[in-house]
Amino acid sequence: MKTIDYSFRERLNQILGGFGHNYCYQCGACVADCPTHRHLDDFNPRTIILQALFGFEEELIGTDSIIWNCTNCYNCHERCPQEVSPIEVIIALKNMSLEKDTQPPVIKNIVDKVRKSGSTVSVTELANKRREELGLPPFQMDCTDEVEKLLKN
Amino acid sequence: MKVIPFWGCMIALKYPQMEKAVRFSLEKLGVEVQEETRFSCCPDPIYFKAADKITWLTLAARNIALAEEHEMDIVTLCSGCTSTLSEANYHLKHDKELREKVNQSLKKIGREFRGTINVRHLVTLLRDDVGMERIKASVKYPMQDLKVAIHYGCHLLKPSEVMNVDDPVVPKILHELIEITGATPINHKEYLLCCGKACQDHELSLGMSTDVFQSITDSGADCMGLICPTCFDSFDLGQIRVSRKVGKEFNVPVIYYFQLLALAQGAKPEDVGIKYHKIMPDTFLEKLRVSETVAS
Question: pTM higher than 0.95 for the full model?
Fold first, then answer.
């Protein structure tokens, strides 16, 4: 039998937006308007918060967790009568996944791109060519020194 | 009126036609632009925020601090940038402890978030500061024959207490702004649905997009009008994948709102990079040549 893991909840409480899960009374207002739930029955913001209340670490932040199918649309945030903000709890859980290194590869790729160039989109020949064709000034982002310092722990 | 546009990565590098349209429109409206080349990525509210919320806030705070030096509001053109910068500005203004933590990091580069400016999407600048009368006066070639299916996208409106743009359930802002170009705005059944771009399983995004395309097709609109480059990605290039998946050609052209406004203000389709769009039927393109038709 599984038991409630309070230490997991304690860790979640420490992350910005993570504490909200404590307020959830499982009404399900978040479910009806969730676009992912509409297309994937197994994705259910109410049960994600329930698992957080149980402290089910493996289900939530193990490899291939369903939390990565959240659309980030904020409908649940708008509907919630308890100010849980399921989306912010889900993002806090994603932050915890990084500590376990169970996140999809795209996350670190994006952070690395920002670290190296300041941008999430690569500067390509095509981009420069199109900007020139449109008569736009050359792309400029003079930030890498400062960004690197801020990304250093 | 002078503002600092936050061009962002996606518009500037992937869809520069959107930047061009905005520059064209702002000039017609007499809004001056203050360039700031030291901005970094906002950083993005999906992947970067998923990695670490505090670092995400810190980089966003650096961008806001740069605009604070100019004592001017940041005007955003991408819903992702709008989301990140508005949320950061809101939370850092309201949460003293968080602000102190972030400012501790910013000290390393000699900067500080002070909370002295606002972040706003360009559509709110148009509605609230430029005003509908001035926009109307700038529209020389009304897009009378065009029915535009509205697509809001998520991050212009929500979280509503942070964005403070419009009612997130029954918004009006895009309806009004499309109407002013002379086109007919269409609130089709799925006009508030998410594009699903952030879902890891791309099948989900394709499913949501299919619902949106079906809804637009049923509405009889000529095209889709939106304000977010990520949604544009899902619906223009993404439409090819959607068609392949469901075995059906929707052929819905997608247009960024400021391209529509620029066209109504006298731009030609080539001025605002319409040729870079993947889905652009000739019959629709002809409808966009209002300034040339009237002139000839």
Answer: yes
